[in-house]
Amino acid sequence: MSLEPKQMPVQYILGEWDFQGLSLKMAPPVFIPRPETEELVEWVLEEVTQGPCVVGAQGGPLILEVGCGSGAISLSLLSKLPQSRVIAVDKGEAAICLAHENAQRLRLQDRIRIIPFDVTLEGSWAHLLPWGPVDLVVSNPPYVFHRDMEKLAPEILSYEDPLALDGGEEGMDIITHILALAPRLLKDSGSIFLEVDSRHPELVGSWLQSQPDLSLNLVAVRRDFCGRPRFLHIRRCGPQHGCPVDAWPGPQPARVPG
Known about the structure:
Distance between the termini: 31 Å
Number of strands: 9
Structural class: alpha/beta
Radius of gyration: 17 Å
Helix content: 25-40%
Largest sheet: 7 strands, mixed
Order of helices and strands: HEEHEHEHEEHHEHEE
């Protein structure tokens, strides 16, 4: 059954939306950034600016965003951290194109590398090694429990990419891939910041305890503006495996097939 035009999300109708004070182009089916995710960005900014000094080879943090979508998180961090640099990855072609366009609109394209990348592919992390180890990994991954997908609003199910929402049986499919990838790319004492479902802090903590070889510790959980545990800070502790010295800007990695 066809939907009435009014059921299209307003962000797609307008063709742009504000996020952290930035006007970003929006287009279906690329995931629409939510207000909660602005809180994730604010937490990352707090940790970088108020916490222990995070400095990359060129004076600011090197940040990896997994599942960049429109580029909202990456571009917000770049705009607030003038010396930062970002590697933004997504497996969706539409997302890659939209993130490129938004970076150019905001004149931030010189400090971001936007790369087609599927975190679930075996050995995919090797494509990121030429960029050097990163200080931070940030992601708002697909985390909706599969059984909860049918409860989402009709306009979400009709227009937004379900792959950007559906996290599998317990909403953990992409989260665990990110956590398994991170130790190969993070600097020692590097951090991971994730937006998750309110049921995930306990699940993620248990999963990390079952994977001691990853040397990752859940160090903080933050609630969103509705009081739900929504954001995780995970820190790496232990020697690096796989990353060369910081090589930014380095050679462009080969396009990941798929």
